[in-house]
Amino acid sequence: xxxxxxxxxxxxxxxxxGRLEFYEYSRSQxxxxxxxxxxxxxxxxxxxxxxxxxxxxxxxxxxxxxxxSFLYDVAVQVSATVASGGVVGFLAYIWHQLAPRRxxxxxxxxxxxxxxxxxxxxxxxxSQERTKQxxxxxxxxxxxxxxxxxxxDLLQWxxxxxxxxxxELEMSVDERVEALLELIAERDREGEIKKAEKTLVGFDExxxxxxxxxxRPMVSEIALPLKRSANRMSIGSASANDNFIFLTDEIVKxxxxxxxxxxxxxxxxxxKSYDRDAGVGKVQSGDLHRILNFIVPVPRxxxxxxxxxxxxxxxxxxxxxRRILDESGFPTSLILLDIKLDDEEAG
Length: 347
What we know:
Distance between the termini: 40 Å
Shape: globular
Number of strands: 11
Oligomer: single chain
Low-confidence stretches: none
Number of helices: 9
């Protein structure tokens, strides 16, 4: 039996001393075990387990916590009969569905792009590379989606530029540092998904939607130490030394406030941008109260890629989506399942 090691880290507060409130820690461990086991059982069987007992049991062991930030490793035994791509890649993909980039972070990136664009335009030196950079900043400032690395560069620039006044941001340096860590996790998550992409195509979106609905209530239990013991939490791959999940209390509340609809919806709208590598884009529609991010499930990315790129040249196309709603019933993001250009067949 091979194994994959998932690392869980708490930082700040008591965690910085290598300690956590025992009650919070024990409940967090139990919820984390259920979360990983539910994901891994689904990866192996394609079924969402109601309870992790008997045949659905997953062998896991845990190493003793380390001091400094509170860190422990969970070793998950991986059956050789299950396709490679593994626990880590699938965990990253499920989190990609549970926690898409928040509107607050997207709004911050637009403001930062505007500030950076203004600063860059003051420089007299022009070159092909600088012209390309200005065009990129202009697109982000206009609302197009920044890739994780572009977003990280903007956040890092804002954190490293204390002489620049960001009164309009309404976000402190500490809050921007947390947004930066959130975006680094997004980049690492996309890297893990890319490595596991071939094994992810076998899972249909409706089954994944059922799985995420099952997992969503576990998130607040996993992050329980953030109430009193720690300021932030991350989950990553020990072998890749990355953190593809990043959590603060605010992010946990944001995840809990959203839920996917069971039924799909057809809307008429315009695809504003699309990152073909990440399978994420933005759509504008009269059926929506604002511009929303959409995610294309891995099994549909190859089929829909050319259709989505063609749709960007049209004013309006027909989009079949599953909406993710907040507590007020407003959509916060979309899962794009199909697309139709005028009278042409869908992808």
